[in-house]
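Project standup — Tuesday

K.O.: blocked on the structure for the chain from last sprint. Re-posting the sequence here as requested.
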Amino acid sequence: MNLENLEVGGRSFTVAAGEPICPLYMRETILKNGFDCLIPVSFTKKGSQIKALYETDTKRPAVNYLMENGADEHWIKNFFLSLDGLLSVCGEYLIDPDYISIDNKSVYYSEDSGEISYIFNPFEKGDFKSSCRKLLADITGNYFIDHAVSGELFRERMLREVGKRDFNIRNILARWESLSYCEVREQTGEKQKRTDKKFEIAYLIKDIIGRFYKKEETNSTVAVANTSGEMCLTGICSINTRIPIKEEGVTVGRSMLQKDFGLFNSGIGKIHARVYKQDGYIYATDLGSKNGTYLNGDLLEKRVPVKMERGDILAFSDEEFILC
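H.V.: unblocked you, prediction finished:
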């Protein structure tokens, strides 16, 4: 399905085009009940393609909001709550949630009401769970704006939750207080004290030169991952591990990870996989590893290149990385 924004009579719409494949009762149920997702307001048929207009008045694509404002813990919790509510409604009315689009181009945010909305997509069935993980990996990875998610501890914990194969929104909400960095900070006093000054300085340098740069003309801070051509694999459990994907590519293996990054995992083969650039895209290839290479939870065929996108989760055995 292709999405594009459109202004009509001062109102904002998202135009979707494709061939509807979802059951008719799903469309009628959503139209009748008006859930917290954007639903088709009109259809126009042209040949075999059907175009639908989704009303987005007073709402903005989440990616635009995040680029300007970031996503603090409160925003992320509201995002989880909205997803949980959406799943409850889908379960009550027998709606397949895989027809709800979850990505930074089809999630909309209302600054007036704080509501988060999604597009009901009758044209294409996706993977609700994997798409949630990808979007949350982008948000918690601070790829949109400086200090988008406050606190390394909270960020590390959330990335671990996103990276779990049994990722579950309701489980995260049930354990939210233990995950929240703010709660930990309040319990331990107004300010957390570090006894290791070198550790603190290392993190400060990493934050300044490793993730962001200043635009001279606007003096605004922008995430490097959104502007530079260099992509990297960032460890989910080992967040200090960032493997740059250079033009010549990188061969990932047990010895290489231990020598260059101090990361040891006996499940990773000596020559496990290769990640490289070709024609402007990033590809991953399993090199015949014993324990396998996984892309978003799916086992890759050995020696068959697979195209990757930003936010994809690539696992060498059980060691997971996010492409950013």
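K.O.: great, moving the ticket to review. The chain has a mean pLDDT of 77. Residues 1-193 form a domain with the Transferase(Phosphotransferase); domain 1 fold (CATH 1.10.510).
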